[in-house]
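Continuing from the previous page of notes. For each protein in this section, the sequence appears first, followed by its structure tokens. Read the first protein now.
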Amino acid sequence: MKSFFRIALLTGLFVGTTDILMAYTNSFIKTGNFAEKMFHYIAGGALGLEKSMQGGTGVALLGLFFHYFIAMSFTFFFFWIFPKFKFLVFNKYVVGILYAVFVNLAMRYLILPLTALPAGGAFILERAFIDWILLGIVLGIPIVYNTYKFYGVKKD
């Protein structure tokens, strides 16, 4: 028997890893430098940027924890709501991209404003569209794919 917790946990670990790899890659492409303090920045949501950016390994580990906690939360949330909403059985790729849009907007407008991080920049639809597609590939589609597999959905 497949374990709900095991499958959702492994999916969350996978999407958390692919998401952070995408973030590092995106940062490198934009700046030409490796983002050595990315996890420090994430920890800044709780500690404030000034304090977190001066922190050491413990602060980086806190950022790593927050990153995976968020990835796991969105993964477990989708696994949990899936059987409650029949319209989610449509097309795993479309639903995956739409879930990525939901995650991106929830982070931007609900989660991040509750943190000590500075407000995000202006909403630019063209940039958001690219982010949604990339997030769909590394987060949304894998979550939906494994959810469909777990629940035995055969639809493409």
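Done with the first. The second protein uses the same format. Note its length before scrolling.
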Amino acid sequence: MKNLYKDSVVFVLADMGGGGAQNVSHNVMNYWAANGKNVALITMAPVSEDKFPIHPAITRHVIGGIIPSTNLISRLFNNIKRIIQLRKVLKLYSGYTILSFIAPMNILTILATVGFKCRRVISERNDPAKQSFGKFWDYLRTKLYPCADVVTANSQGALETLSSYVPYSKLGYLPNPLRHSFPHHPVSRDQKIILTVGRLHQQKAHDVLIRAFSHVADKKEDWHLMIVGEGPEREMLTELISQLRLETRITLCGFQENVTEYYKKASIFALPSRYEGTPNVLLEALSYGIPSIASDAIPSIESLIEDKVSGAIIPCNNEREWAFTLLRFIENHNKLDGMAFQARQTAQRYTLDNVIHDWNKYIFPDSFR
């Protein structure tokens, strides 16, 4: 039988919505499909919910299963049904590498491929110590992840967490690639806009940034905060903005397919997240030469931002420190060319051409033999 490991891979995700794992997946799978690899994609959510374009050479399967579970019995039944549906499709791909993302889909994929001849590669895109999907999924992580052939993550902090229950020999680092072509020139910073990009979710700490901006708004009346992203905290954040009387100064922009236009407008980028893996949006902002401020809760943030050289690193949830740093950047935003240059130098390391070797090494190991 022909060894298909060398050039064939199936991606497994819950959906192709606007999240970071989907961003990374679409970038890599489209690159491989365009370069002659055999690529398939399995999702539970329908194509109509996709936020990222999929290369026409990629074979697509939708298995359904996006059903709310109201109690323990329905949760168990729904997950058994998902495993059965996933197993039916994966039977078509004997000999392929199966690459799944995010804990619940990783666990379902491991269970669905019991007894199959395939390589199972699973990927975490946040630190499991900080991103819980509930006690049930957290427990199954520790018991089932060692059954995979390779367990990957996008930060050294996440790999350290995983090493407590996965052998080091099975762990691999898969960096996030920049999803767009590297801009030829940094942004001009003529417009007075602070930008952040991320789901409206507790993880992203938009509330901290909004409160920090409220301390700055009266001092700098011509500056505006733009928040690109959609999610479950929209109502809460809208109410917070209203309470602070900043409706004309802060814009919740919703999900945007073309975030590039927002990077081009921004003078300062802010990422106050309470936890992350390697944030795609920060890499993209750095690639545009936008002076960036980021939370110290992001693993290995020092490898992305050198404090006071290419940006600033601020303690997570420290509203006043965020306000102070925003004000400092605003007052010096036309003197930050050095930071812009260093930011672009850092981002260059994460272009797809520079990181695809790492992905090939773990997904197509026969190419390295």
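What the second structure shows: The mean pLDDT is 90. The radius of gyration is 21 Å. We return to this in next week's lecture.
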